[in-house]
Amino acid sequence: EPEVTQTPSHQVTQMGQEVILRCVPISNHLYFYWYRQILGQKVEFLVSFYNNEISEKSEIFDDQFSVERPDGSNFTLKIRSTKLEDSAMYFCASSASGGTDYNEQFFGPGTRLTVL
Amino acid sequence: DAKTTQPTSMDCAEGRAANLPCNHSTISGNEYVYWYRQIHSQGPQYIIHGLKNNETNEMASLIITEDRKSSTLILPHATLRDTAVYYCIVPNFGNEKLTFGTGTRLTIIP
User: Fold this and answer.
1) Could you tell me what percentage of chain A is helix, strand and coil, using 3-state DSSP and rounding each to the nearest 5?
2) Residue B75 class from Cβ within 10 Å (0-12 exposed, 13-18 middle, 19+ buried)?
3) Residue range A24-69, pLDDT digits in tens
4) Whole-number Cα distances in Å, B77 to B30, B81, B90, B105, B110
5) What number of other Cβ atoms are within 10 A of residue A78's Cβ?
6) H-helix or E-strand containing A6?
């Protein structure tokens, strides 16, 4: 069964450093998402991406964040200058279609980001 | 997103049917009800979704009331692996993002 993969599974970084979280969505999917979950809190939407551009982003997704689909298979989330409060589990997701009539999103296993 | 209300937690005996309720009284006519679950900090997993008719797949059944103001997710024969947090989500029409609440923590008891 096809699945979304994410690397690394755990990333430890120093405050102020740049990190890139990588995701390989399911191959025929067209819509891509990043969510995050701070320990013990809700899963929060960060950004959605379609047709090589951001379709929606949350208030969390400020100028320190960026997304890219550099090669048609990977989907990356970059945090330019990490803060302590960026420590969280980051989930990538993909779906075959958008809208709300059929929007089954497949989630990856997550990358645990720890900012020291 | 249409606000959803779910019980904080529920227990169910292994092998019995688990019935998880969700209220979504402000749902609009063209908004779907989605159910996802999250097993111990893994990525959320899609379960089922529906608009107005009852739906069934290999994982679960979804019963939506006629007025669409509430729904029930049914896991027909719960196993220990079904222990998870279950989320009922009603995305705004035309909006792909999922807004997760606190969900229902379902514990399957041996």
Assistant:
1) 5, 50, 50
2) buried
3) 999 989 999 999 999 999 999 999 999 999 999 999 999 999 999 9
4) 31, 11, 26, 17, 12
5) 13
6) strand A5-7
Q: Where does the pLDDT of residue B95 fall: very low under 50, low under 70, confident under 90, or very high at 90 and above? A: confident
Q: Looking at the complex, does the CB of residue A9 fall below 8 Å from at least one CB of chain B?
A: no
Residue of B nearest to A98 (CA): B96
- Cβ of A99 within 8 Å of Cβ of B97? The answer is no
Residues A27 and A9: beta-carbon distance below 8 Å: no
Task: Return d(Cα B87, Cα B47) in angstroms, integer.
Answer: 10
Least confident stretch, A30-44, B29-43, B88-102: B88-102
Give the residue on B whose Cα is nearest the Cα of A40. B41
The number of residues making up chain B comes to 110
Q: Is A72 helix (H, G, I), strand (E, B) or coil?
A: coil
**Mean pLDDT score of chain A:** 94
Q: Tell the residue number behind the tokens 């497949």, with chain if given.
A: A106
Q: Taking the CB of residue A95, how many other CB atoms lie within 10 A of it? A: 23
Residue A64, token pair as written in the block: 């320190």
Give contacts of B87 with chain A, Cβ < 8 Å. 43
End-to-end Cα spacing for chain B? 36
Q: CB-CB: which of A33, A89, A101 is closest to B32? A: A101
Give me the residue from A89, A98, A110 closest to B96, CB to CB: A98
Please report where in the chains the tokens 């890219």 appear, as a residue.
A68
